[in-house]
Design a protein that fits this description.
- This protein is mostly helical.
- The chain has one domain (20-324): Alpha/alpha barrel (Glycosyltransferase).
- It has 14 helices and two strands.
- Helix content is 44%, strand content 1%.
- The protein binds geranylgeranyl diphosphate (GRG).
- Geranylgeranyl diphosphate is lined by residues 97, 100, 145, 148-149, 193-194, 196-197, 232-233, 236, 239, 241, 245, 315.
- It catalyses: geranylgeranyl diphosphate + L-cysteinyl-[protein] = S-geranylgeranyl-L-cysteinyl-[protein] + diphosphate.
- It comes from Culex quinquefasciatus.
- InterPro entries: PGGT1B-like, Prenyltrans, Ptb1, Terpenoid_cyclase/PrenylTrfase.
Length: 333
């Protein structure tokens, strides 16, 4: 009996080398045309879009292609003095996701002193619930993504003491499933994106010993498909962003070598757009800035020597994490 696998096939005409210069131009010119349809439609996540672009360029050693002062100014305009949180763009409500992106950008520019980090810490503390979980914003959605954002922000601004860390850890562990993976809340399906958030959370909080690494790494390895690409959960198509979520989790657990790096690299390179630069979710699709960062990030984890070393927990250049004096843990086998 034949099993049908959701996968893609990679043709001979797809790129096989890193199109470095094209990606620099793709990111540096992103958003130059403020009337561009895609740019307008992504206003609701602008702050994260800037983080993806800034980080991608810095991994390529080309941070100078963007205007630091304009970006820091934009962050200050999005910083809400009342709640202490940061919004995706001016006039929007603050959210913990965009607060993390803003803090990451400020760290990359060594510009944390340009904002009130006490206010940011107060905002993160105000979102913690009695069971240790975190709301994403004042509207009350709970998700393990927000637990990751909370400890990532607080470790980068060195203010972890504003939350109840033991309870935060208990909540994340209550989202661990019998397959070794994690979902968005207790009893929710394991998903590679949420596994990254929970493994990253445990890396920041020095609790990696709570993981069943053998079981979890096995589940993550099963995400690799015959094309070499990785999916986020069983039966799904491969997507370049899972090259990051899965590979970063395996790297933190010291098990990057459990998947075929060669096949994954081939898949990621095939997702480059040979004309415009940038990476798409999968071979032959339109590129975007989100998949461009996670394609570059995954290639850096795989050791591409044209890229700066990326930190697997924060998805930021390692030299920035060192400068911030943050030491997320990894397992060394
Ligand atoms: C600092 C890198 C960094 C991240 C911040 C927000 C966050 C923390 C992590 C997000 C992790 C996550 C949940 C990723 C999944 C993203 C994604 C494309 C989900 C798509 O879900 P479906 O159901 O896709 O549409 P599948 O592939 O399951 O069909």
């Amino acid at each position: 009996m034949a099993f049908v696998t959701n996968d893609v096939s990679i043709g001979d005409s797809e790129p096989r080398e890193l199109l470095f210069d094209k990606h620099v131009e793709y990111i540096a010119n992103h958003g130059n045309d403020k009337n561009d349809y895609e740019y307008c439609m992504t206003e609701f996540l602008r702050m994260s879009g800037i983080y993806w672009g800034v980080t991608g360029l810095d991994l390529m050693g080309q941070l100078g292609r963007l205007n630091r002062d304009d970006i820091v100014d934009f962050i200050r305009k999005c910083h809400c003095p009342v709640s202490g949180g940061v919004a995706a763009c001016e006039g929007h409500d603050p959210h913990i996701l965009y607060t993390l992106s803003a803090v990451q950008i400020l760290c990359i520019y060594d510009a944390l002193d340009e904002v009130d980090t006490e206010a940011i810490a107060r905002y993160v503390g105000s979102l913690q619930q009695l069971d240790g979980s975190f709301f994403g914003d004042k509207w009350g959605e709970v998700d393990t993504r927000f637990s990751f954002c909370a400890v990532a922000i607080l470790s980068l601004i060195n203010k972890m003491s504003v939350i109840n860390l033991d309870k935060a850890v208990d909540f994340v562990m209550s989202c661990c499933n019998s397959d070794g993976g994690f979902g968005s809340k207790p009893n929710a399906e394991s998903h590679a994106g949420l596994i990254y958030c929970c493994v990253g959370f445990l890396s920041i909080t020095d609790q990696l010993h709570r993981l069943d690494c053998e079981k979890l790494a096995w589940w993550l390895c099963e995400r690799q498909l015959p094309s070499g690409g990785l999916n986020g959960r069983p039966e799904k198509l491969p997507d370049v962003c899972y090259s990051w979520w899965v590979l970063a989790s395996l790297t933190i657990m010291g098990r990057l070598h459990w998947i075929s790096a060669e096949k994954l690299e081939r898949f990621i390179l095939s997702c480059q757009d040979g004309e415009t630069g940038g990476f798409s979710d999968r071979t032959g699709n339109m590129p975007d800035i989100f998949h461009t960062l996670f394609g570059l990030g995954a290639l850096s984890l795989l050791g591409d020597d044209r890229l700066r070393k990326v930190n697997p927990t924060f998805c930021m250049p390692q030299y920035v994490i060192d400068r911030c004096k943050v030491q997320p843990k990894t397992i060394v086998l």
